[in-house]
Specification:
By secondary structure, this protein is an alpha/beta fold. The protein is built from 22 helices and 13 strands. Helix 16 crosses helix 18. It is globular and about 80 Å long. The model has no long low-confidence stretch (mean pLDDT 82).
Length: 472
Amino acid sequence: MEEINKTPKQIVAALDNYVIGQGQAKKAVAIALRNRYRRMELSAEMQEEITPKNMLMIGPTGVGKTEIARRLAKIVHAPFVKVEATKFTEVGYVGRDVESMVRDLVDVAIEMEKQQAYSGVRAKAVQAADKRLVKLLVPAQKKQAKQNGNEFQNMMNMFTQMQNGQTPDMNETSNEEVTDDVRNQRLSVADQLKSGRLEQSEVTIEMDDPQQAAAGSNNMLGQMGIDLGDSLGALMPKKRIKRTMSVAEAREILVREESEKLVNNADIYHDAIVRAENTGIIFIDEIDKITKGGQQGSGEVSREGVQRDILPIVEGSQISTKYGPINTDHILFIASGAFAESKPSDLIAELQGRFPIRVELDDLSQSDFVKILTEPKNALIKQYIALIGTDNIKVTFTIEAIEAIASIAYKVNHETQNIGARRLHTILEKLLEELLYEGPDMEMGEVTITENYVNERIGNIAQDKDLSRYIL
């Protein structure tokens, strides 16, 4: 939450590193984000009155709508969820409850809060994890139970721990018989662990079964805010599995387990809900597909009905989650759609009113394609140079070649279906297909991609409209 105080110009500058053009859209989202910071500086009474100005992005596919929203959330470390409006129109078990997008946002916020809390206790957690690793690398002989009474007492202690909400300690140190030899070995191994000499050594550890965790989180009851997993978990012990892995990998698993013991989950859940309420961003894509314009299939629920379900969430309502209730009054909603076969006025009037900021994204020009290929931090040309470089081949692109690629992408987009910057992925894959295939056998070398090379590889395909429809 501390990163939200960036100025609009700083936000736009950060977005410029990843998204080319679309200055109007960047400016609008930067202002919307800055207004959140401004609101947090006001009195509590005034904060309640100021609601976020939700945004509707209008533009063809592949021009940067989703990328702007996703990068925006990363820049300010805000919880971010992207949902497709069409998911709510599907009938049956595949269709989703509209409120699930808010619950997904809370899940993202909780993971962010956990990472923050865990980083604060990491030093202690690493110490505890290293102690456990020493015992696993140099195991001691277990003590034999002398009397049945001891076993009964241990069992009663376990039940008492479970009743108090604690995890029973199955590996108590008192059950170990540590000889002088074992103690000396452990001291030696502890020193080696500190110096990093055992990072690649193998060790067998017991850990929670990830399959059990995944099964508990993926259920329809979870979408309704009911956590059956926690209820059953209180009655049944967690399933543990054994895995053999490197010390470095095992340490991270043990550090997470130790971190969970050191933090207060109740605080994490509370802080996560506050974070989601005040800084959360929900991106609703393909909102134009739920307008009344266009055909409706028999396997879909009423599109207007989905709009009416989304309306109270965008207006502001309280949603039940398994971590507690969350209020959606101050969550920022960004909707987007191409609106090729419909228009924003086809949305129900109430929903239109909840998206007061309208931004139309520009179609990408040929010069935009050149910039997309070269300027961003994650530019496609840079990605392919790095990929092919792993085969010890140095690839360089001439500026004429890049301009030729941009020209073909622009031409194909306007002669077939306009899919924006995504067309560049298709063209580059086809252009570099032979190099990617032959690369590992070339061992090393230098390759220069020229304008002639581009024309030879994909020029003919681009000229033939029928071919370009299928291949590019």
